Amino acid sequence: MDQETNTELADTIELDGNGPIYRQIERAVRAEIMSGRWPAGHRIPSEHTLLEKFSTTRATVSKALSKLTEAGLLERRRKQGTRVAQTTESHAVIGYLDIRQDIEAKGRTYAYRVVASSVITAGADTSVWPEVETGTPLLRLHAVHSGFGKPEVLEERLISLQAAPDAVDADFEAETPNIWLLARLPCTRLRHTIRAEIATAAQAAQLGVAANAPLLVSLRQTWADAMPVTWVKLIYPADRNEFVGEFNPLQP
Asked: Which residues belong to any copy of the HTH gntR-type domain (predicted)?
């Protein structure tokens, strides 16, 4: 990669001004990867180019890239530069349900709509997320995943504004919360639970199922280092969905 091309690539990324410089560089590079602008195998700008662009030190840039390498997003090889890891896509979605992919696989046009959004404070009414400290500001979202305009999955979500303060101004209908959060914060820990529930009257009306119909519910919590990031509940009609997992250590 020549110096001109290297510089042009660096010009596409910007820091957000929030927190330590190495964390800002980490989020900026992560955003390029998760958006697909830097695909697997893509050679990223050199450390020298990045330290000049952001007026920082080589140690700071190296720390940011090391964090991304540890997360499996980058591969750093001596004398060959740093490239986006070939396994980036698999690492990014492990533990996540790709609702858009599932709906589009059925030949339907996917849409994500935020029904309600508010800022609340963690307390008694957020007991579903005990890992977040009382008093933490949270963004509460109620959203619908639709196919051909018909609701297929309901979403209830809490996002810690301590972990992701910019979430309050994000356009989640343009970029869903999963994609938005993964582009900005590492997911270092994930807890995923699947259980059954009975539809409330409101849920039944939204999903077009009978009152008291069985639902499949996916509950997920994620952390960035030790900080809770998001709690999300996905609600599916049980008669139209199933969750399938496969483990095959012999398959490359």
From this structure: 19-87
